[in-house]
Write a structure and sequence with these properties.
The chain is built from 19 helices and 15 strands. The termini are far apart. The longest helix is centred in the C-terminal third of the chain and has 28 residues. The protein has 5 domains: 105 residues, no CATH class; 51 residues; 183 residues, Ribonuclease H-like superfamily/Ribonuclease H (Nucleotidyltransferase, domain 5), CATH 3.30.420.10; 65 residues; 66 residues, no CATH class. Helix 2 crosses helix 3 and helix 7 packs across helix 8. Strand 4 and strand 5 form a beta hairpin. Putative transcription activator involved in regulating light control of development. GO terms for molecular function: zinc ion binding. Belongs to the FHY3/FAR1 family.
């Protein structure tokens, strides 16, 4: 039996093996100086040694080696054709024709499948959903020549090669393309002495335009985007006229030290033509605080309240009076309308648990820096509804469906554009709805009429909620001290349909 090409003889033996129920692998081969195959040995995939290659003898790795002798030797003749010189067909193990599709040699992705995987991946469809659509189209797993693992491996390979070799060069090429499409696309890259990528910052034209209109307050947050680079993803987020978070710029960083954040904030200033934010919210991190004080000295700086309160169990959970301490801190923080109210409430809490929390440096540090996070100290500044960086935490939701835990740097940068386009489309739809529909007023107050005419629907709803609360307030004059009049405000607070309580303010 002769074959015209090397591929013909390989495919013949693979088809034979698939019908019989065993896998095929190459055992040895030799080529001449011109690269032409001289001989080739194909054997059963169970030909190897039975010993595990694990270094831990108590935890051996699985091995397919059973010492099977089945094989074929293939030789190229003088005329360039191939023939089988040796055939051993006996196996020392059970064959399984019904599972032949699972052998590695039988798994392959054809051009159409590869194209479909790439298109779905670029659209942000997760690999498991991408694969399931192929299963449905093939009418079952048994009709596919590949599994989900092969799809994942292929997509990871294409992502690595999408921009060519070298991440710094790849990302630079991508940014150059974006800038050629729109000159207002901004990016800066920071590389080390060996031209290896360290940090990168970018903001598209839409993000820069949003900051021009909504620069009152930004929140800055670093969240680890789990990829093979383990680089923290940093986001600058603002609030638009619908009260929605708006992405103002992004960065991928190699470190989270003061020097890195200074570079990033200076890149941000370059992007915004040296327009500092009026106010900024960040996590409680010394490196970020140092950078803010260096680069944004005129901005009102606030720590993320949500992150601080989230740390209470970790920092104070071991104390005997933890539940009381947690409740007391919450009351001091959220119920104090003035600095005096907070100081009094905090001191009462310290007096009652003074022996229990004495020496807690974290709590002492919070109190020493209370002007950076307690609402009573920062309420003189407009924060656009941002009191925590939870809005930045929602960047996970922003990119959900576009990236996953194995997303590489190159793939993330390209998927960023797709995610942003979807966000812009949602804002356009909200603009349309606000322009073409009106939320009816609940009172005849002129102030409500004024807000109805200038606010978007979402923001007008928030105003109406506050207006409704005002209707449940009673005002009683207490006394007059010079030019100051003191009133007692009693608010009826509804808990559910049948239960409520009254709260007094003075």
């Amino acid at each position: 039996m002769t074959f015209d090409t090397e591929n013909d003889v390989r495919q013949y033996y693979k088809n034979y093996a698939k019908a019989k129920g065993f896998g095929v692998t190459r055992r040895s081969s030799n080529r001449d100086d011109n690269g032409q195959l001289k001989y080739l040995t194909l054997c059963c995939s169970c030909h190897g040694k039975t010993e595990s290659n694990s270094k831990n003898m108590l935890k051996p790795n699985p091995t397919a080696g059973l010492g099977c002798k089945a094989k074929v030797n293939i030789v190229r003749g003088p005329d360039g054709t191939f023939h089988l010189s040796t055939v051993i067909s006996d196996h020392n193990h059970t064959l399984s024709p019904h599972t032949s599709r699972l052998f590695r040699c039988n798994k392959r992705l054809n051009f159409n499948v590869k194209r479909r995987l790439e298109l779905n991946d670029r659209a942000g469809i997760r690999v498991n959903k991408n694969f399931n659509s192929l299963v449905v189209a093939a009418d079952g797993h048994e009709n596919l020549t590949f599994g989900e693992k092969e799809c994942r491996n292929y997509l990871e390979k294409t992502r690595r090669l999408k921009f060519g070799s070298g991440d710094a060069e790849a990302v630079r090429d991508y940014f150059m393309k974006m800038q050629s499409d729109n000159p207002k696309f901004f990016s800066l890259m920071d590389v080390d002495d060996e031209s290896r990528l360290k940090n990168v910052f970018w903001a598209d034209a839409r993000s820069r335009a949003v900051y021009d209109s909504f620069d009152d307050v930004i929140t800055f947050d670093t969240t680890y985007l789990v990829n093979k680079y383990d680089m923290p993803f940093a986001s600058f987020v603002g609030v638009n006229h619908h009260g929605q978070y708006a992405l103002l710029g992004c960065a991928l960083l190699s470190n989270e030290d003061t020097q890195t954040f200074v570079w990033l904030f200076q890149a941000w200033l370059t992007c915004t033509s040296n327009r500092q934010p009026r106010a900024i919210v960040t996590d409680q991190a010394k490196a970020i605080q140092n950078a803010v004080e260096i680069v944004f000295p005129d901005a009102r700086y606030r720590w993320c309240l949500w992150h601080i309160m989230k740390k209470l169990p970790e920092k104070l959970g071991g104390y005997e009076q933890y539940e009381y301490i947690k409740t007391a801190i919450g009351k001091s923080v959220y119920d104090s309308l003035t600095i005096t109210d907070f100081e009094g409430s905090w001191m009462r809490m310290r007096m009652l648990v003074r022996y229990d929390i004495a020496g807690n440096e974290w709590l002492k540090g919070l109190y020493d820096n209370r002007h950076r996070w307690v609402p009573a100290f920062v309420k003189d500044v407009f924060w656009a509804g941002i009191s925590t960086t939870q809005r930045s935490e929602s960047m996970h939701a922003f990119f959900d469906g576009y990236v996953n835990v194995k997303t590489t740097l190159k793939h993330f940068v390209s998927q960023y554009e797709n995610a942003l386009h979807d966000k812009v489309e949602k804002e356009i739809l909200d603009d349309f709805n606000s322009f073409h529909s009106t939320i009816p007023r609940i009172t005849h107050f002129d102030i409500e009429k004024q807000f109805q005419s200038v606010y978007t629907n979402s923001q007008f709803k928030e105003f109406q909620e506050e207006l409704t609360h005002m209707l449940y307030c009673d005002r009683n004059f207490i006394q007059k001290e010079g030019a100051i009049e003191i009133y007692k405000i009693t608010e009826d607070v509804l808990i559910d349909k049948d239960e409520g309580w009254r709260k007094d303010y003075r």
